[in-house]
Structures are given as structure tokens and as C-alpha cells.
Amino acid sequence: MIREYVICVVFFAFSVFMTVQDIKSQKVSRWCSVALLVVMIVSRIFFCDGNERSGFIASAFLGLGLFEAVRLIVKKKLGLADVFYSGSAGALLGFDMWLAMCFIACIVAASVIFFRIRRSAHEKNTRDILMIPVPFIPCLFVGSIVSKTLYFFI
């Protein structure tokens, strides 16, 4: 159990750094995205056994594949860092909790858009507000925290 906490702390540290980057500049450094993915997969290879190991690694690749498919469908409006983060979260959470993370992240992103619209309701630039991209890594991070917390307590 201590190993799982250490893995979570490492994921949290990378996530905070990436969240700040995404909010400030809408860009996340490639080395950080790839490093988090590698660290999560390697930690699962060394610290998990048998079916558990293969489940986490399969979740990482499913997360990568599904988000890359979405990225291609939306004509690369979703960043590559989001794809790598999804794979990292898959390795951290496993597939069931990864799905919960995605659902929560979408709710958070929709909430951000909703509050932007409400804030600008008295102005005439609602269309301009909708054109501002929502940084998605912070949404995924919130989803990861909630999902992992649910995992620990359920």
C-alpha cells in the first residue's frame, strides 16, 4: 500500500506542474508528458504482479489509443499532452477508474464553460467566451484525484 501512495505522490507532483503549464500557456512540455507516462508504466511493471500489472498497462495503452482517436476526430484540437496524460492516468487508475476520471473531467470542463457563459451573460461577447479553449489537463487532474480517492475509500 505504501508503494501505491508513493506512485500517487509522483503522479500528483507531475500533474500539478503540468496543470500550471496548461492554465498559463495552453502548452505542456513534451518531456514532462512523456516522463509521467514512462514513470507510471515502469512503476506498474515493477510494483504490480500478474494480472494486475497487465491490467494497468493495458489501461495505459487504451487511454492513449482512445484519446489519440478523439484527437484525430477533432482535428488535433485536443493536445498531445492530453493524450499522454490520459495514458498516465490509465496506468495509475486502471480502466474502470480511468472511465470515471474521463466522466468527471468532462463534467468539470462543461462546468468551466457554463460559468464562463454565466459570467459573460450581461455582455454581448458570449461567442468570444466560447472560443477560448478550456485547459483540459486540469480537468483530467481533478478527475484523477476524485477517482483515486474513490478507489481508496470504496
Can I get a quick summary?
The protein is mainly α and 154 residues long. It has helices at residues 2-25, 30-47, 50-73, 80-93, 95-119, 126-131, 136-153.
Give the DSSP E fraction (strand runs of 2 or more residues). under 5%
Q: Show unreliable segments.
A: none
The Rg value, from CA coordinates, equals 16 Å
The total count of strands amounts to 0
- The helix count comes to 7
Arithmetic mean of pLDDT? 93
Q: Which structural class should the secondary elements be placed in?
A: mainly alpha
Helix share, percent? over 70%
**Main sheet summary:** none
Termini separation comes to: 15 Å
How are helices and strands ordered from N to C?
Answer: HHHHHHH
Overall body shape: elongated
Plain-language structure description:
The protein has 154 residues and is mainly α. The protein has seven helices and no strands.
Label this structure with key terms.
single chain, 154 residues, mainly alpha, 84% helix, 0% strand, elongated
